Amino acid sequence: MLNWKGLIMKNSWAEFVELIERFLLLKNQSLVTKLCIFSTVLVILPVLSVGIITYFFSSSEMEEEFRESSLQIIKQVELHIEYYLQDFEITSLKIINSPEIASLLRQEPIMDEENRFLSEKAVDVLKNSEYSRNDISNITIMLDNGFILDLLGEKNYYSAMNIKDEYWYSSLPENGMVMLVSRTLKLKDKELPVISLVRRLYNPHTLKPVGMLIIDINFKRIEEISRMVTLDKNGYFFILDSSGHYVYHPDEQKLGHKVEVSELATLENQKSGSMVIQNDDREFISYSLSQNLGWRFFTAVSYHDLRSGIRQIGSVITWTIIISLLFAYVAGFYGLTKSIVQPIQRLHSFMREVEVGNLKSKVKVESGDEIGQLTKGFNNTVAKLSTLLEEVYISKLREAEWSLNKTEIELKMLQSQINPHFLYNSLETIRGMALEQEQENIAEISSLLGKLLRYNLRNNSSTVCLREEMKFSEMYLQIQKLRFEERFEYVFDIAEPLRDYQVVKFSLQPIIENCFVHSIGEHAKKIKITISAHLHTDSSLIIKIADTGMGMEKEMLDDLTKKIRENASTLAGLHIGIMNVHQRIRYLYGAEYGITITSTRGSGTEVSLHMPIVQDKDVALHESDFIGG
């Protein structure tokens, strides 16, 4: 029963793999179809992703820039209007503190000759204040006892007593602070929208409220300030008071009325910001709260107009992607067809001719790439096959055997040509065999040796970045770790920015190797190897390799330092790695750079490599030019 279940699961897995290969890897499709589909997945999707991300990022950035610029404009207008209205607050204080008005506020409600005289004096004070500014439309004093002073007089067709019925009257501050409201003066032949500065009046003796002062300010100056706001052609600027009524709007019909959009009337805790509202047309609103006035200043632009630039960017990105992809497909399809598909088709056609025995023709080799080399090799193979067949039919069996033996010898000679790549592949084979035998140490050493060999093969430059040299050295240290186990430890103390600087290739490993040759071998205690780096000056770098081994005798250190200073070509077999690195540093960068050594017997040794800061990999000399390498 279990065997049947296992067989069914095995067949199901095989069918699943077959489906993957057929539909995802296009196992049975032509090469052209595979190239088109894979290029679609690998090219179109990343390009579309970049385009979409760019579009949304640009959209967000443009909205943020518009939001910031709108708030800056609002702040400027807000500041101008605050300063402007503060002047009227000062004017109201001058009126209240004038002796005539103060005397009027102290009088009883009986209208006698003295009160009439005071009223005339008070009117003069109000007229002087009105004449001093051309933006004051009217000044009214309304006392609780029914006494009213109105500079418009009979021209005002709106009784001052009706003020008690207006929306703001009940919320007038009792502490003498001013209140700014939007109102409309009704004259004989027109209605005049104004901003009224209102404040309570108090009896100077009893300090009880006795009435109110109303200064009606026309919109002349406020309109001038508001026109400073430069927005989109369909944008506009407006102001709401603390209760959500229009204080200023380009449409005068809305002045004094409640704002229509509920979202704008419920911004009590928000000082500034922006939003998109849905009214007759979607609008992008930016707003700011004036703490001094209690007003909110708004700018509104059509969201459609705001995003016109964003849509233009999206259109440019879209067309750029389309044109780029069309060009890439046309050029790529032509290039792939010309350089890959057609040569393979010609080779396939020739192979079919070889199958039926036509060994005389050849495929034209048009390139030096892998397909060209494959074609050339196949031509050679067919030519050799043709020659062998002719020899079989013409020559005797002995000659044929001799020819076959000769071919076998040639193949063995080719196989015996071991190169570094063969060594690398051999190490990989050893690693695989070790893993099969569960010899983890052998596998790891083979892997590390293979990586060291590949590092040597793939980089022929005289310099590499410090990061690569660290990786190479760490692989060497890992190999030694397998050899010496717990007899040493190592640490890299090199800041991340320093790892991108260029250093001489194979400059760290020979120094580290000396730590094992001259330290671990001398005693049994555990040593520590530290590789560190720091900036020596703004233009040079020092790399230090220190160990906690036995160190050197003073005589040996002095002799080694002298030979390094004299740039001796050899060291009689001692410390040859140090001298090699020192000479290569000097030949690459100059005599002011190189190696210095400090050591104390019993405390350890420290080797310092002084090199300039180089970020360009191009150097004048190459390692093949060095002496003593």
TrEMBL record:
A cellular component term, taken from the record's GO annotations: plasma membrane
Tell me what topology the record assigns in the membrane: Multi-pass membrane protein
Please state the Enzyme Commission number of this protein: 2.7.13.3
Q: Which InterPro entries match?
A: Bact_2-comp_sensor_kinase, dCache_1, HAMP_dom, HATPase_C_sf, HATPase_dom, Sig_transdc_His_kin-like_C, Sig_transdc_His_kin_internal
Extract the CDD domains matched here: HAMP, PDC1_HK_sensor, PDC2_MCP_like
PROSITE patterns assigned = HAMP
The record's keywords, sorted A to Z, are: ATP-binding, Cell membrane, Kinase, Membrane, Nucleotide-binding, Phosphoprotein, Transferase, Transmembrane, Transmembrane helix, Two-component regulatory system
Q: Any transmembrane segments, and where?
A: 31-57, 316-336
What GO molecular function annotations does the UniProt record carry, in alphabetical order?
ATP binding; phosphorelay sensor kinase activity
Q: What is this protein called?
A: histidine kinase
Subcellular location(s) per record: Cell membrane
Q: Which Pfam families match?
A: dCache_1, HAMP, HATPase_c, His_kinase
- EC class, as a word, reads transferase
Q: Which organism is it from?
A: Ureibacillus yapensis
Catalytic activities: ATP + protein L-histidine = ADP + protein N-phospho-L-histidine
Q: Where is the HAMP domain?
A: 338-390
